[in-house]
Amino acid sequence: MDIQNRVSNYLKESFTSDLKAGFITAVVALPLAIAFAIASGVEPQMGLYTAVIAGMLVAASGGSRYSISGPTGAMTVIILSTLHSFGLEGLLLAGFLAGAFQILFGILKLGKVVKYIPLPVISGFTSGIGAIILIGQIPNALGLIIPSKEHVWETLYAIISSANLISSTAITICVATILLLLFLPGLMARIKYINSLPPSIIALILSVLIVYYFGFEIPLVGSIPAGLPQIQMLNFNFELLMNVLPAALTIALLGAIEALLCAVVCDGMTNSKHDSNKELIGQGIANMALPFFSGIPCTAAIARSAVNIREGAKTQMAGIIHALILLMILVFLGPVAAFIPKAYLAGVLILVSLRMININEFKTTMSISKMDTAVLIVTFLLTVLTDLVFAVQMGMFLSIILLFIRLTNVIDIHTMESYDRTKGINATIFADPYLEKNVSVYTINGPFFFGAMNVFESKINEHMTISKPHIILRMRYVPFIDTTGIERLKSFIKASRKQHQRVYLTSVQPEVMKRIESDEELTELMQKQHVHICDSSQDALTFLKKKYGNK
């Protein structure tokens, strides 16, 4: 009875809104699914298979209520690269493994970790992918029949070699498509009955009618087989599996990043909250299932998800409805694709690629940080000029180096002379002749790790020339200490002991204290009172003055 009530309430409250949103989203997704498949170097129907299956599975099992999944521009480049390197068998296996990785990310609750990839790396990847898509669509825009190439310079060389075959009709259709997509929304917004219609479908209908009636001889998509494909088994060859593993991990990471970014955008538009780990599991389930139905790797698409929200979607059923409508189009209207000009798809993808190249992010990054700018530009160039797997690896490596440099720059060690002589610990020290003559105080700010050692060494060398018998290391602002820090701390304590100096560690954070106590040698030094642990610097001063000040 409860299920009946829920179904009844859904039909009354949400079904009409979800039906409208799902229909419009499907209409928007149709040309994009075909275009991204062709840009990926696979048959156009594979894009539709992906949109149908991913749309259903992710909507049913994902963690974002409004996200729409399917083939996307960001994935086309890595798909094309994998296809060129390992063939269709390798691509399908890489997609399956990518899904397994994404499910593992979700189970291990790594959803939030993905969000910490630096913006310059993401911007460099995204803009680089946009540039590759843009260059890859030039042949279709010019009416040239050139197979998809793995590298941009190969595409450019092929264009120059075939320059005598350029079609003015194809150029006209491509330019007209771009102009319609840019200016139709504003014109249609003023007309009540068609303001919800996607401009892309109007441009599609016009281009199909023009080709059909005038019989222009330009490259066309070709007829799409009706219905879903037969279930097929994958080639789980161990050697092939090991070869495609890096590509699979790259697909998983890119898909995870885009899916979670899309979920965040949807949250902002609807004031809702997604479950990042559940979304990763949903994406993984879809990517593991797709290869068995000749589908290519998928992820959430921000543009289609935004359309879904703008058209009034209320539940995840809108995503499932969008997939069912695409399935109906695939079953009944497949032959119509025979008249879709590739120049129209080029116009759609050129606009998509230009939006991926975010000039404002470039300007903002360049005005804020030279290091961020270097990471962004290097990642962008590597994405465009090398393969995406290498670009991802180098981008992550550069982001780690960037983090290391910034952490190192955060580290600082202040002496007591840096502070006001009349306040706090200095007031105590300078009010007492013994303390002023015999105590050095160092305040460590930031993580005490291998990157901080050069700063620590310089301050310690400075201290050795001063050579006061009591050294207080204030550690209130040390959030963590690594193995290198522990080892260097032990070396410093031993060296100080040989110089007849005593070391006091004060205000040590609990996590840092755990690391110190877990080291047997440091524990022994504390037991032998070669180093003293004090709750505060004032406690350390009171202790040493009482014990040594009257001698």
From TrEMBL:
InterPro entries: SLC26A/SulP_dom (IPR011547), SLC26A/SulP_fam (IPR001902), STAS_dom (IPR002645), STAS_dom_sf (IPR036513). The lineage of its organism: Archaea, Methanobacteriati, Methanobacteriota, Stenosarchaea group, Methanomicrobia. It is a multi-pass membrane protein. The keyword Transcription does not apply. GO terms for biological process: transmembrane transport. Keywords: Membrane, Transmembrane, Transmembrane helix. This is STAS domain-containing protein. The chain crosses the membrane at residues 20-39, 86-105, 117-136, 156-184, 196-215, 244-266, 317-337, 343-362, 374-405. Pfam families: STAS, Sulfate_transp. GO terms for cellular component: membrane. It comes from Methanolobus vulcani. Residues 438-544 form the STAS domain. Coiled coil: none annotated. It is found in: Membrane. Its main location: membrane.
